[in-house]
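User: Please fill in residues for this 118-position structure.
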């Protein structure tokens, strides 16, 4: 299945979001931002990732808007590891209501745009 434009838009927006709001977030933390709950966890290192890089998993849930996403990102020297398309990935979208998970992509996009100004 070919990626949609919304997938590319969300990929770029989530990178900006992580850099702006979560670059300093330590693992094992739970935070709240703009109606969403954000859980930061350490993640396993992937093949080809430098030893001094830190992999994180972000679970972002917005109960009022009924969506959740899981993002994996690799940081090195307080910057997202490049290429970002490889090392910063939205792994999963979930719509917590009756609608399909595809609807969650658009809700996530609206939320991200409100925070990163795009």
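Assistant: Residues filled in for all 118 positions:
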């Amino acid at each position: 299945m070919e990626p949609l434009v919304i997938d590319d838009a969300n990929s770029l927006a989530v990178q900006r979001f992580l850099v702006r709001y979560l670059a300093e977030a330590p693992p094992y933390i739970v935070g709240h931002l703009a109606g969403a709950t954000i859980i930061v966890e350490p993640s396993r290192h992937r093949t080809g990732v430098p030893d001094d890089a830190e992999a994180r998993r972000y679970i972002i849930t917005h109960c009022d808007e009924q969506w959740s996403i899981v993002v994996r990102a690799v940081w090195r020297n307080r910057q997202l590891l490049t290429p970002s398309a490889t090392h910063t990935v939205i792994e999963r979208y979930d719509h917590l209501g009756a609608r399909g998970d595809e609807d969650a992509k658009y809700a996530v996009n609206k939320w991200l745009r409100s925070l990163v100004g795009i």
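For context: The chain has a mean pLDDT of 89.
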